[in-house]
Amino acid sequence: MTVSKVVLFNPRSSAGRTPVLPMSPLAVGAVLESRYPYVIVDGNLIDDAVAAIEDEIDTDVKTILAVTVMPGPQLEHALPVCRELKERHPKLTVVWAGYFPSQHWESCLKSPLVDLVVRGHGEQVFLELLDALDGGRPGDEIAGLAWRDPSGEPRSNDRGPVPRPDELPEWNFDRVPMERYLRDTFLGRRTVGYASSYGCPYFCNFCAVVNLVGGKWRAQSARRVAGVFETYHRRWRVDAVELVDNNFFVDEDRVAEFSDRIRSLGMAWWGEGRIDTLLRYSDSSLRAMRDAGLKMIFLGAESGSSETLELMDKGGRLAPEMTLELVEKLGGLGIIPELSFVLGNPPDPEADARNTMDFIRRVKKLNPVTEIILYMYTPVPLAGDLYDQVRARGFAFPETLEDWTGPDWLDFVQRRSDAMPWVGRSLRSRIRHFERVLNAYYPTSTMTRLTPARRRLLRAVSAWRYHTRAYAWPLELDLLHHVMRYQRPETSGF
């Protein structure tokens, strides 16, 4: 079987807003350069993905369709596209990779729409797979590959070592229409994303990253990351970058060097990190980050309860008081903390949510510009106290792709689901009502179209509810939201 062409398909994920740069296809494509002909088809840029992919399929040669799949909208789009293409081209080899198939590879391989699954870090695995197919070999011994045995049963090999990012080729940005991915955001008028590292060295038992990397973290050098910033700035006049690493701030020396290298560019940037890690940073490193354009840091505060943090196995020595310490420190530097919280955790979801809502009020009193993002606890297939408790309450993941794309489970992966028996309807309502009042009294900084006058109106209308804690059924705020669309930060993004 000679591989003559590879189609890297990025299913739709950003409907209703400017699309996000398809980083996974760019990373995979980089290892294919000069080895295999390939194209990137981004479902966010086209109306008919089936037609666009079919245009790239040559019935006279062997075409491989590789699909990157996140749970939620991408999965919802990938399934019907692959179904229609398989109906038209039964011999088409379809390979799935990414967060969803890496964790739920058995569900994927139970479907006739998926032939093979690449698990975990995929660049080298996919290249080895293409080499095997090109040489007429089955490839069933490749580390990181999941496949079906002769009886049709799903099988998975152990994942191989994670490559060092600096040893991987740089992305070929000419493979995509870069101008279409530049967005007007809170950070800048021409904002784009980049991923400079892979994984995270911690083992939080509610986080899907753990299953993908097993506590490993691999990062590009400060020099290489700064080089990408320089390329963005020089070629496309990019003025802001979202660093979407699972944990950008693991290595203080790397971050400090990176900050020094990009300071002269005058670019803004955003990244994700841990509270306990950043509290160990020196004042000089924090100032260097700020002076280099760091505007906001996404941080997993997760809970206002030390007991819940222990159940989450957050690692390190994270405690609520440490969150308050960092919030205050970042406020003094002019860097906005963006805190995510997970509410409704077992064993007592009611008490957990109440404690965390009270804690959020303490955060806002200390630093009013702090961004707050609320989720409800949703399990990941990872052993630990939280997962064991929800399984005992009857929770189970879907077994088929069709079930995964049902309305309940699409909500589930967005952490807004009713399919969570440990969080009752009343508690879900209270969390949503609290969130509405909070976001009205403290409108998000990321909503650039929200005028000062509208911010004052929202704050005035919501003040009595916030001060009296009368969160229930804020119908007047629902109406204002319908008119003004003052969004949750994580829903609409930058």
Description:
- There is one protein chain.
- A hairpin with a 5-residue loop joins strand 6 (145-148) and strand 7 (154-156).
- The protein has 21 helices and 15 strands.
- Residues 490-494 have low confidence and may be disordered.
- It has a 7-stranded mixed β-sheet, sandwiched between helices. Strands 8-11-12-13-14-15 form a 6-stranded parallel β-sheet.
- It has 2 domains: 3-156, 3-Layer(aba) Sandwich (Rossmann fold); 165-492, pyruvate-formate lyase- activating enzyme, CATH 3.80.30.
- It is an alpha/beta fold.
- The longest helix has 18 residues, at 349-366.
- Helix 18 crosses helix 19.
Task: Work out the number of β strands.
Answer: 15
Count of individual domains: 2
CATH homologous group name of the largest domain? tm_1862 like domain
C-alpha end-to-end distance: 45 Å
Indicate the proportion of strand residues: 15-25%
The name of the CATH topology of the largest domain is pyruvate-formate lyase- activating enzyme
Low-confidence stretches: 490-494
Largest sheet: 7 strands, mixed
Question: What's the average pLDDT?
Answer: 89
What is the percent of helical residues? Answer: 40-55%
CATH class of the largest domain: Alpha Beta
Helix- and strand-based class? alpha/beta
Radius of gyration over all CA atoms, rounded = 23 Å
Spatial shape: globular
The number of helical segments is 21
